[in-house]
Structures are given as structure tokens and as C-alpha cells.
Amino acid sequence: MTHVVATFYKFVSLPDFDKKQQPLLAYCQMQGIKGTILLAAEGINGTIAGASQESIDAVLTFLAADARLADLEYKLSYAESPPFERMKVRLKREIVTLGLPEVDPNEQVGTYVSPQEWNALISDPEVTIIDTRNDYEVNIGTFTGAQNPQTQSFNQFPDYINQNLDPTKHRKVALFCTGGIRCEKASSLMLSQGFAEVYHLKGGILKYLEEVPADESLWQGECFVFDERVAVQHGLEPGTYELCRSCGYPISQEDKASSKYEAGISCPHCYDRLTEEKRLRQQAKIQQFRQNKDVS
């Protein structure tokens, strides 16, 4: 069965965000929807999946009943198996955590660039291209010529800017991320620090992979996504990566051929940190999973 996946976000003032949690959760559950929606005073951010387009449309219509979310944009993709196990609606301080509450995309953001215009922008030698995602995401795919900030979490991005970029030298900056949300905050931050021209890919990598043909693409590799699909390729087709069930790192077929890979126990990215206690714990999880599977 093909499952419909919808991703969306919007920075908008939602001072009553906490009151939306339970009604939204109940409605999603009634529609058989699974996934995660984050609510904060600064807006909404979510990825949800359903067994039918009708169920997804119902939730999007439910959200749009709030005038503040009436123009909520979303992206659709598809998965052969359920990408989420349960439905969660969480209350957060930020819908994407930068750690600087004074940075407000509702006040200012960079210049949006469509997927069709993106190649020309990042081919300009005067443009500094920055991947705002975390290191493990960058490692499985990125744009040609992009800088990797080598962050482990998004709240390290401000330090990267302070230590590596100068508004007087880097006058044109192009940012990109998975779906666009991190670039909203990153571009707002950089504008507040005096960077003259800050551009970001509208709709993120996912929109680019959906709309730009592979033979015209400047994307290399696959794009990590935060669900059971792990990664997607051009046309948003399923990728080739899996998750290490021990450390959560995306692993390739090459990683699985390594002597350091043991299904559910370790991979080349965590093997050297594997303690005997962790090994026993992971083995117990695998045994419990098999027993539950046999019972069901």
C-alpha cells in the first residue's frame, strides 16, 4: 500500500498554540494519520503520513480552518510502507531549535530562490553556498560546491557563522536545507548580523529533487529525511540508506558490507564506541523484537 506523506511548516504568531494540541491530535488520530507536528508560539512544523490522500487532505483542511494557517504550504511525497509508528503533537519553544529566540523569521528572512533558479545562483563564483543541515545529513548528499558547517545540531550554526563568515567578505550567501525551515531562521540570523545578500532555496532540497530533472541537477547523493524512508533521491524516489538501529546513523550498502557492521548492534560509525554493556542491551532488544514478532 502506498502511503501519502505531507510536510509543512509556517512561521506565524500562535500565542495560543498550547490550546491547539489536543484537538489537533484527536483529529489526526480520527483520520488514521501518523507522524509528528510541532507547535510553538512562533508557528507550526510537521510531517504526517496517511493511507489515503483524503485523510491527508482532511487534516490540512482542519489546519486551514485557523485563518492564520489558511495559506499553509505543503509538499507531498509517497512511501511504500508506513513511515511513522504513531501520531505525536508536541509543544515546543521553537519549531526548529536555533537557541536564539530573538531571531524571528516573521520579521525578516532572506530572498527565496525557486528550484528552477537555484542552479544559476550557486554557479555564480561570487556566491558562498552553505548547507545548513547537520554533518550526518551532509555526508550522504549535498549540492556541488557547498560548505559543510560540520554541526551536530542546528543550534551550533550561529557559532559556525561567527567563526567562518564575514559580512564584509561574504556578500552573497546561498543557504539550503531539507524542506526550507532551517534556512528561514539561518537567513534571518545572517541578515541581522549585516550580511547583505542572503538567498535560500524555496521548498528546500525536497522541492528541488521533485522539480529539477536528474540530468540538470547539481545535487550529489541522496537526501536524508526524518522518517522510516531514511533518504530519498530525484523524483523523491526512495533512497538506498537504512538506519543503524544502534546509533541512528544513516548507513549505506557499503557500510553494511563492513566487518564493523552487525545488524541491530553496530555500524562503522559507532563500532569504536560500542561497549559490552551496549552490545548486550542491543542483543536483548533484538531478541525481544523477534519474540514479539513470533507472538503476533
UniProtKB/TrEMBL annotation:
Biological role stated in the UniProt entry: Catalyzes oxygen-dependent 5-hydroxyuridine (ho5U) modification at position 34 in tRNAs.
Keyword Cell cycle: no
Domain Rhodanese: 123-217
Protein name per Swiss-Prot or TrEMBL: tRNA uridine(34) hydroxylase
Alphabetized UniProt keyword annotations: Oxidoreductase, tRNA processing
The protein's enzyme class: oxidoreductase
Gene Ontology terms describing biological process: tRNA modification
Pfam family, one: UPF0176_N
PROSITE patterns: RHODANESE_3
UniProt-listed Enzyme Commission number(s): 1.14.-.-
Reaction(s) catalysed by this chain's protein: uridine(34) in tRNA + AH2 + O2 = 5-hydroxyuridine(34) in tRNA + A + H2O
GO molecular function per UniProt: oxidoreductase activity, acting on paired donors, with incorporation or reduction of molecular oxygen
Entries under InterPro entries matching the protein: Rhodanese-like_dom (IPR001763), Rhodanese-like_dom_sf (IPR036873), TrhO (IPR020936), TRHO_N (IPR040503)
Name of encoding gene: trhO
Top-rank taxon: Bacteria
Alphabetized HAMAP family for the sequence: TrhO
Family of the protein in this entry: Belongs to the TrhO family.
Listed PANTHER family: RHODANESE-LIKE DOMAIN-CONTAINING PROTEIN 7-RELATED, THIOSULFATE SULFURTRANSFERASE/RHODANESE-LIKE DOMAIN-CONTAINING PROTEIN 2
